Amino acid sequence: MDPYSAEGELVNLHNYFHQAQYAQVIDFDTSALSSSNLLPARVLQLRAKIALSQVDEALSEISSDANKSTPDLKAVQILAQYSKAQHAGKPLDGNASAAEELAKSDGDNVNVQVLCGTVLAGAGMAEEALQVLGKHQGSLDAIALIVQIHLQQNRLDLANKEAQQARKWAQDNLLVNIAESWVGMRQGGEKYQAAYYVFEELAQAPATQSVQSLIGQAVAELHLGRLPEAEAALQQARDLDAENPDLLVNSVVLDTILGKVDEAKAAKEKLAKVHPEYQALADWAKKKEEFEKACERYTPKFDP
């Protein structure tokens, strides 16, 4: 039985993780779990620490873990080292190489597939990541990552196909709902409202609320033209974690739309200070450079 299925004993832990309720994942009592599920639970807890930027702590725990030589914890270690290098703005080539090597030797391991796929995708090696992830046997985590990669590649057709295929056998699984919502945000139209319902349900229930679900709700509200509601959702997220990079990015966007120039500038400066490695900053810098080059072509020149 899939431990993450509705009947599996890790379903709550898995849902906590994908609801971005990382503190609940870390604090989850694993003492009553069957022995076969202890390692999958451990992987999720270590991933939660990495998501909360507790990377050094995660690496320390891996080094002293009796299972440190397993492919699962080797994959977590690679992910942690990648996260540390990324945050420090260091080259990611070594992390990507380590991920490729582990994927070659233990490519049938689902944690290797998902975590090494994550590292490869983050290092700009999307096709290599998809090749690793393509070996999965019904892993919703792998499917969700494949959907994300296709969306980053602007292949909405492939992302939608992947999500719809998962829907056929995963039914009303939380991760499938979230993945379909990601796709819906790109499809537009009535899909915005469907995505809103998913994120709003997660964001406004005390048991499932997190920064990420509130941001998802805010983005859906923004697409629906409900700017005050989007602003309110982002404020709720800000109350939980004012330095979350996705919060700061979306604050820049919303404040710009609202004409709040000073607030948008402050959010961008804060993002650059606390998350200088964040991809949005590089994207904005590139777009600014391209815009300035385009402007030069149309700058009128007058004879003296």
Automatic annotation (TrEMBL):
Compartment list: Cytoplasmic vesicle, COPI-coated vesicle membrane; Golgi apparatus membrane
A Gene Ontology BP annotation from the UniProt entry: protein transport
Keywords in alphabetical order: Cytoplasm, Cytoplasmic vesicle, ER-Golgi transport, Golgi apparatus, Membrane, Protein transport, Transport
Annotated GO MF terms: structural molecule activity
Statement: the UniProt record of this protein carries the keyword Transport: yes
Membrane topology term: Peripheral membrane protein
UniProt main location, coarse: membrane
InterPro entries xref list: Coatomer_esu, TPR-like_helical_dom_sf
One GO location term (cellular component): COPI vesicle coat
Record keyword Protein transport present: yes
Function text: The coatomer is a cytosolic protein complex that binds to dilysine motifs and reversibly associates with Golgi non-clathrin-coated vesicles, which further mediate biosynthetic protein transport from the ER, via the Golgi up to the trans Golgi network. The coatomer complex is required for budding from Golgi membranes, and is essential for the retrograde Golgi-to-ER transport of dilysine-tagged proteins.
Similarity annotation: Belongs to the COPE family.
PANTHER family noted in UniProt: COATOMER SUBUNIT EPSILON (PTHR10805:SF0)
The protein, known as: Coatomer subunit epsilon
